[in-house]
Amino acid sequence: MFVQFTTWDIVRNLLEAGRWTLALSLLAFMLGGAVGLLVLFLRISHNRVAQAFTKGYIEIFQGTPLLMQLFIVFFGLPLLGIDVSPWLAAALGLTLFTSAYLAEIWRGCVEAVPRGQWEASASLALSFPQQMRHVVLPQALRVAIAPTVGFSVQVVKGTAVTSIIGFAELTKTGSMLANATFQPFLVFGLVAAGYFALCYPLSLYAKRLERRFHVAR
Amino acid sequence: MSLVNIAGLHKHFGTNHVLKGIDLAVEEGDVIALIGRSGSGKSTLLRTINGLESIDKGELVVDGTAVHDGKGDLRALRQKVGMVFQQFNLFPHLTAGQNVMLAPTVVKKTAKREAEDIAKEVLLKVGLSDKFDSYPDQLSGGQQQRVAIARALAMRPKVLLCDEITSALDPELVNEVLAVVQQLAAEGMTLIMVTHEMRFARDVGNKLIFIHHGRIHESGDPKTILTNPETPELANFTRAVM
Ligand SMILES: Nc1ncnc2c1ncn2[C@@H]1O[C@H](COP(=O)(O)OP(=O)(O)O)[C@@H](O)[C@H]1O
Ligand SMILES: [Mg+2]
């Protein structure tokens, strides 16, 4: 069977695959954010075991390539008798990756809150969760917004790696189309343009936020 | 029983033995000035009284709430002890009114309406009733420090700790803060303050404590011991600062 691809066919297929890239990015970012918040709380808690565990967690994910993390999820879980589809492996791997980075970014923001704020709220008899909720997180949040949006660009680009375990997102679909059409330059040019269209507005937005919170109180 | 009772209090930072057996009784209505050279342990002593620093050895009792050898209910202690810091430490994301209302609503679960009344009352007391909706960065240093005092008062503390609360202020703003403290003293508030304002310590305090190398080296009536210090160390100190 031989199929003739028009340029519009290529674009249409890439747009469809782009939706998976977008969906995976959103999912990884939201779930990663939720898990990251949990990791952050354990990381800065007064519990030694929780501190050590989350410190190790963050270091493992920051110290190994995302590709290896995906391989371990995709090939490792089946060894334990758990079957994972490429979609599940991609979502799980990226979520863990994102959670570790966000927890570390946010920890920096929490530590940027001056010690005097902790001391003042402690001497008013606030408990640790009350200090976090009413004093520390509201201030850390201001600082966190710009780097968090900035990191979302890394998540979008990170989804490309999931093509290697066979998840048919933008990059994977691009390779298949390049093989079928013998027009790799056109296809990957379009793929790159797709990533750019997703990432550029995010970086621009992150830069604007950074400037805004730099001058704000 | 005194309002604050400290007995045999020791505190180390690593190998640095900072407080070497402090015994101190504070009665209701006392206005105590802590003086001494930088690094002598004044702030550390003050901070143990509301549990910001742990105690290695000894006993601390404030109005019946006790800390023995570092163990005790710190949050119960802190509800009885207010603290004002050199650097104000107002919450920058909250207005003056919200700064004052936070602890009553969150810690004591006071209803919002009632907390607002308390906030208005204490802001009026420090002369800032018109600044309820101002953010800290819209206030002068002196005004910020007065809000910090109001914030502590809103918890109705039994004793108020002040750690060099005028040291970070421009000279022309010092008096407005001291006036508030003086008024509190006159109303019978129990105060323990670390201060370099010797004249204020003498005129407003009823007891002066000279800390030297982590010990109470000399203490007594401010006018008496400042005029006739018994130890050469206090004599040297007063000569240097007055
Ligand atoms: N958090 C801390 N960690 C280690 N050492 C400290 C700490 N706080 C104070 N110290 C040390 O304790 C001693 C007393 O300090 P401090 O109570 O602040 O003195 P003062 O208030 O009289 O100037 C100093 O030697 C100081 O370096
Ligand atoms: Mg000090």
UniProtKB/TrEMBL annotation, chain A:
<dbReference type="GO" id="GO:0022857">
    <property type="term" value="F:transmembrane transporter activity"/>
</dbReference>
<dbReference type="InterPro" id="IPR010065">
    <property type="entry name" value="AA_ABC_transptr_permease_3TM"/>
</dbReference>
<keyword id="KW-1133">Transmembrane helix</keyword>
<dbReference type="Pfam" id="PF00528">
    <property type="entry name" value="BPD_transp_1"/>
</dbReference>
<dbReference type="InterPro" id="IPR043429">
    <property type="entry name" value="ArtM/GltK/GlnP/TcyL/YhdX-like"/>
</dbReference>
<keyword id="KW-0812">Transmembrane</keyword>
<keyword id="KW-1003">Cell membrane</keyword>
<feature type="transmembrane region" description="Helical">
    <location>
        <begin position="185"/>
        <end position="206"/>
    </location>
</feature>
<keyword id="KW-0472">Membrane</keyword>
<feature type="transmembrane region" description="Helical">
    <location>
        <begin position="87"/>
        <end position="106"/>
    </location>
</feature>
<dbReference type="InterPro" id="IPR035906">
    <property type="entry name" value="MetI-like_sf"/>
</dbReference>
<dbReference type="GO" id="GO:0043190">
    <property type="term" value="C:ATP-binding cassette (ABC) transporter complex"/>
</dbReference>
<comment type="similarity">
    <text>Belongs to the binding-protein-dependent transport system permease family. HisMQ subfamily.</text>
</comment>
<feature type="transmembrane region" description="Helical">
    <location>
        <begin position="20"/>
        <end position="42"/>
    </location>
</feature>
<protein>
    <submittedName>
        <fullName>Amino acid ABC transporter permease</fullName>
    </submittedName>
</protein>
<feature type="transmembrane region" description="Helical">
    <location>
        <begin position="140"/>
        <end position="165"/>
    </location>
</feature>
<dbReference type="InterPro" id="IPR000515">
    <property type="entry name" value="MetI-like"/>
</dbReference>
<feature type="transmembrane region" description="Helical">
    <location>
        <begin position="63"/>
        <end position="81"/>
    </location>
</feature>
<keyword id="KW-0813">Transport</keyword>
<dbReference type="GO" id="GO:0006865">
    <property type="term" value="P:amino acid transport"/>
</dbReference>
<feature type="domain" description="ABC transmembrane type-1">
    <location>
        <begin position="18"/>
        <end position="206"/>
    </location>
</feature>
UniProtKB/TrEMBL annotation, chain B:
<dbReference type="GO" id="GO:0005886">
    <property type="term" value="C:plasma membrane"/>
</dbReference>
<dbReference type="InterPro" id="IPR050086">
    <property type="entry name" value="MetN_ABC_transporter-like"/>
</dbReference>
<dbReference type="Pfam" id="PF00005">
    <property type="entry name" value="ABC_tran"/>
</dbReference>
<dbReference type="InterPro" id="IPR030679">
    <property type="entry name" value="ABC_ATPase_HisP-typ"/>
</dbReference>
<protein>
    <submittedName>
        <fullName>Amino acid ABC transporter ATP-binding protein</fullName>
    </submittedName>
</protein>
<dbReference type="GO" id="GO:0016887">
    <property type="term" value="F:ATP hydrolysis activity"/>
</dbReference>
<keyword id="KW-0547">Nucleotide-binding</keyword>
<dbReference type="GO" id="GO:0005524">
    <property type="term" value="F:ATP binding"/>
</dbReference>
<keyword id="KW-0067">ATP-binding</keyword>
<keyword id="KW-0029">Amino-acid transport</keyword>
<keyword id="KW-0813">Transport</keyword>
<dbReference type="InterPro" id="IPR027417">
    <property type="entry name" value="P-loop_NTPase"/>
</dbReference>
<feature type="domain" description="ABC transporter">
    <location>
        <begin position="4"/>
        <end position="238"/>
    </location>
</feature>
<keyword id="KW-0472">Membrane</keyword>
<dbReference type="InterPro" id="IPR003439">
    <property type="entry name" value="ABC_transporter-like_ATP-bd"/>
</dbReference>
<dbReference type="InterPro" id="IPR003593">
    <property type="entry name" value="AAA+_ATPase"/>
</dbReference>
<keyword id="KW-1003">Cell membrane</keyword>
<dbReference type="InterPro" id="IPR017871">
    <property type="entry name" value="ABC_transporter-like_CS"/>
</dbReference>
<comment type="similarity">
    <text>Belongs to the ABC transporter superfamily.</text>
</comment>
<dbReference type="GO" id="GO:0015424">
    <property type="term" value="F:ABC-type amino acid transporter activity"/>
</dbReference>
